[in-house]
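Recap quiz, item 2
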Amino acid sequence: MKLKITVLLVVSIFLSAASFYDGPTSYRIEIPMAFPPMLHSETADLTEEGVLLGKTLFYDKILSVDSSLSCASCHKPEFAFADRGVALNKGVSGREVLRNTPPLFNLAWHRRFFWDGRSETLQQQAIEVVSSHEEMNLSWSEALNEITSQKRYRRLFAEAYPNQEVDSLLVADALAQFQLTLISADSKYDKVLRGEAEFTKEEFEGFIFVNDQGMGNCLHCHTTDAHALGTNGSFANNGIDQGFADDQGVYGITLDKKDEGKFKVPSLRNLLFTAPYMHDGRFETLEEVLDFYSEDVNAHPFIDHQMNYFLREEPVFSEREKEVMLAFLKTLNDSSFVSNPSFRP
Ligand code: HEC
Ligand code: HEC
């Protein structure tokens, strides 16, 4: 009898010690209202510790060759992780990079990454950006030496990835974990969807206008009705140029001529924080963007057929129509996203 009790005691002490440490705590992403299912399966494996490590790396200049830049030097939280007012950021060499810095939010719903979609995952994207000459220009062996020489990082990695050797894949995974948590779903528009606010008359007219094929016709690419991302996640040639000598977009990756001038369809969310616009930041204001769609779309041979509507001789939009579209676009700005303290260091 006594022996049995002792055995039981020993077993239960052992079990409770084992359950005392059960590894990293999982981090769950709630899918906001009117958002489609997420596209990246790793969103199921996020952990509090992984997200914290990723955030620490994101804000640390340790990932650039001369410790002059962090991810956040270009992707600034106050500008929805883009850089307002800068068409082309400068990389470590001080030279301008080729393209406008895109904002970072709702990335779990992006099919591919970069303006030309050359990365299929956020992990791949991070591997490229750290070693890219134009951006951070750090070799991965140097990066790993720097990181593992710091006690703080050894601890953060051990907590996020117990018993795993620190390598570039883990660094990229942690960065991806943090970036997947950057969800913007609390604009006025989201509040209207949730029944917590109402559109003004102008905003509502703008909403209808943007999402009607016979009116603004933006919905085929920048969807804001059936789902709320502000983009359909595809790549399209919107007639921005007649030729694409400087930047051929997706064609530069696939070498399929039909992809010339195709760029990622950006979201219409948070435009207040992310000017200037387009892959090269050519338009400083939304008024200029709407003037482009109304009057300056180029009949490029591979222009998306949804753009035919915009290829008229006369202006496509009246001043009133532009006003209501602008009023609607403003409802997509999410100020709680850009001030969210949990996304800051
Ligand atoms: C010098 C400025 C700069 C720095 C530093 C920088 N980025 Fe970027 N980032 C850009 C630009 C410019 C692009 C678009 C490049 C392209 O499409 O070819 C981009 C694209 C991205 C994208 C793709 C977004 C999308 O919508 O497809 C992600 C994700 C990203 N960066 C994350 C990071 C991370 C993580 C770091 C740090 C490891 C980082 N960036 C450092 C400028 C920068
Ligand atoms: C055929 C698809 C398509 C249609 C239709 C379309 N767009 Fe776009 N839009 C794009 C693409 C692709 C880009 C990026 C092009 C580039 O960077 O060169 C873009 C860029 C933009 C941008 C810049 C966003 C940023 O972050 O840089 C805004 C704003 C915009 N579109 C608004 C509209 C509005 C408003 C309409 C309707 C009047 C519309 N678009 C119709 C595909 C489309």
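Residues 58, 63, 69, 71, 73-75, 89, 91, 97, 99, 101-102, 104, 110, 113-115, 122, 125-126, 129-130, 135-136, 175, 179, 264 surround heme C (ligand 1) (CB under 6 Å).
The mean pLDDT is 91.
End of item.
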